[in-house]
Amino acid sequence: MNRRHFFTGSLAAAVTASLPASAYAQLLHSMTTVSSSIVGNTGDGAEVEIEQAAVEELKGALRGRLLLPGSDGYDVARRVLNPSIDRFPALIVQPSGAADVQNAVTFARERGLLLAVKCGGHSFSGKSTCDGGLQIDLSSMRHVRIDRGAQTAHVAGGCLLGELDHEAMAHGLVTTAGTVSHTGVGGLTLGGGFGRLARKHGLALDNVRSVDIVTADGQLRHASADENPDLYWGVRGGGGNFGVVTSFEFQLHPMDRTVIAGDVVLPIERAKEFMRFYADYSREAPDELSLDFIMPSAPGQPGVAIIHAVWSGDPRQADRVLAPLNRIANPIANTIGAKDYVALQRTWDNSDPRQGGDYLKSGFVYDIDDRQIDAIIDGFEPHPDRATNFFFQASGGAIGRVPVDATAFPSRAAINAPTVVVSWNKGVDPDPHIAYIREYWATIEPFTRGFYINVEELSAGDSLVSNFEKNYERLVSVKNEYDPTNLFRLNSNIKPTV
Ligand SMILES: Cc1cc2nc3c(=O)[nH]c(=O)nc-3n(C[C@H](O)[C@H](O)[C@H](O)COP(=O)(O)OP(=O)(O)OC[C@H]3O[C@@H](n4cnc5c(N)ncnc54)[C@H](O)[C@@H]3O)c2cc1C
Question: Where are the alpha helices (DSSP H) in 216-340?
Answer without folding.
Answer: 229-235, 271-283, 318-326
